[in-house]
């Protein structure tokens, strides 16, 4: 059986929620970002190497919209995980996790994000409520902090 760290949160979404362009495992044209819990369960991590087609106005730097999208997908997946864990539940391959969507996303761009290597987002919970989760995130690339974000995510029902 897989440990929580090995499980991609987006792959535990209910069937109808698996089509996000950024992180949906069932979107054939999507990016397929993966967010996984850390080994201790206190944070979540998303690592990816951007495709060169997502360059911004300056060649070899990631387009700002892609940065925001990566924070959005990582933040909502992390919110789902933190809410799930807060209920005392384990994340398993059979989990159908509650789905969260973005109510607010704030991004602070610190430095350009190079497109030629791994980008890592680390997410930690700020507040976990019954229906709302606030997550703080940091994006690193080439050993430097490149951007920070804060997301307010809300849980939705399956019939949204």
From TrEMBL:
It comes from the Bacteria. It is found in: Cell projection, Ruffle membrane; Cytoplasm; Membrane. GO terms for biological process: fatty acid metabolic process. This is Acyl-coenzyme A thioesterase THEM4. It is an enzyme of class 3 (hydrolase). The keyword Hydrolase applies. One of its GO terms (molecular function) is hydrolase activity. One of its GO terms (cellular component) is membrane. It is a peripheral membrane protein. It comes from Criibacterium bergeronii. InterPro entries: HotDog_dom_sf (IPR029069), THEM4/THEM5_acyl-CoA_thioest (IPR052365), Thioestr_dom (IPR006683). The lineage of its organism: Bacteria, Bacillati, Bacillota, Clostridia, Peptostreptococcales. Keywords: Apoptosis, Cell membrane, Cell projection, Cytoplasm, Fatty acid metabolism, Hydrolase, Lipid metabolism, Membrane, Transit peptide. Its EC number is 3.1.2.2.
């Amino acid at each position: 059986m897989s440990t929580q760290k090995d499980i991609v949160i987006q792959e535990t979404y209910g069937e109808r929620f698996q089509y996000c362009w950024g992180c949906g495992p069932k979107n054939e044209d999507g990016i397929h970002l993966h967010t996984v819990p850390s080994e201790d369960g206190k944070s979540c991590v998303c690592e990816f190497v951007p495709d060169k087609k997502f360059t911004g106005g300056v060649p070899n730097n990631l387009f700002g919209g892609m940065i925001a999208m990566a924070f959005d997908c990582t933040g909502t997946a992390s919110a789902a995980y933190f809410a799930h864990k807060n209920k005392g539940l384990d994340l398993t391959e059979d989990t159908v996790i509650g789905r969260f969507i973005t109510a607010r996303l704030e991004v602070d761009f610190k430095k350009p994000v190079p497109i030629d290597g791994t980008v890592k987002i680390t997410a930690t919970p700020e507040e976990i409520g019954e229906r709302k989760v606030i997550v703080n995130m940091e994006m690193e690339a080439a050993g430097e902090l490149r951007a920070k974000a804060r997301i307010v995510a809300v849980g939705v029902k399956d019939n949204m």
